[in-house]
Amino acid sequence: xxxxxxxxxxxxxxxxxxxxxxxxxxxxxxxxxxxxxxxxxxxxxxxxxxxxxxxxxxxxxxxxxxxxxxxxxxxxxxxxxxxxxxxxxxxxxxxxxxxxxxxxxxxxxxxxxxxxxxxxxxxxxxxxxxxxxxxxxxxxxxxxxxxxxxxxxxxxxxxxxxxxxxxxxxxxxxxxxxxxxxxxxxxxxxxxxxxxxxxxxxxxxxxxxxxxxxxxxxxxxxxxxxxxxxxxxxx
Length: 235
Ligand SMILES: C[S@@+](CC[C@H](N)C(=O)[O-])C[C@H]1O[C@@H](n2cnc3c(N)ncnc32)[C@H](O)[C@@H]1O
Prior knowledge:
Layout: H1 5-22, H2 37-42, E1 50-55, H3 63-72, E2 77-83, H4 86-98, E3 105-109, E4 122-128, H5 137-150, E5 151-169, H6 186-196, E6 201-216, E7 219-233
Parallel strand pairs: 1-2, 1-4, 2-3, 4-5
Antiparallel strand pairs: 5-7, 6-7
This protein binds S-adenosylmethionine (SAM).
């Protein structure tokens, strides 16, 4: 399948910019309502001066609650939050002040594809619904390898990716383009994960179907995809 990367990136930025201005962090009825529960659970296993990396952090759906939880436990921590969209980083910085965790949150405007990750540096790396926005399969593989190399021994990764996108006009059945930068099949992502994290202790891997019918540009659209959720600990 050929992908118009520029168009896909433009659509990604447009969608997220509009979403973050329409819905506030933790707003009910939005996907910003709650943090990722399995990611939050990993905090219980982190000790010392904790370093977390949140790739494609958005406006802090996960980073702000993680910072609050660590602050409450009295733990010293830094959460480096990377997003390619300036509006994400601006809003994240504002929410960090609102929720009084600005000392823990370190916002970085950068592209995951080019973000340099120090070796064996992080206790936990999260990449939630963001690696499918890398520029091509080779970059997805390269970023996964960087994540693996940048995690400390006994540290954790939590990766979620949307695969197998199939979007049709609900009335006519006509296929509708979704413009993701790197459309992937579930089996491709499974193979990428098993290679990048070979020898790791896989704590959880779920593959969940997702379906919804939404109104888009005046027509009823049926969205069908698969979500891969992967949690692993480095030996
Ligand atoms: C579906 S949102 C998820 C946000 C957050 N991880 C969460 O779970 O709430 C995807 C985020 O990834 C960001 N993003 C997309 N492509 C990116 C890239 N190449 N580098 C960094 N961030 C990216 C988007 O701007 C958006 O904020």
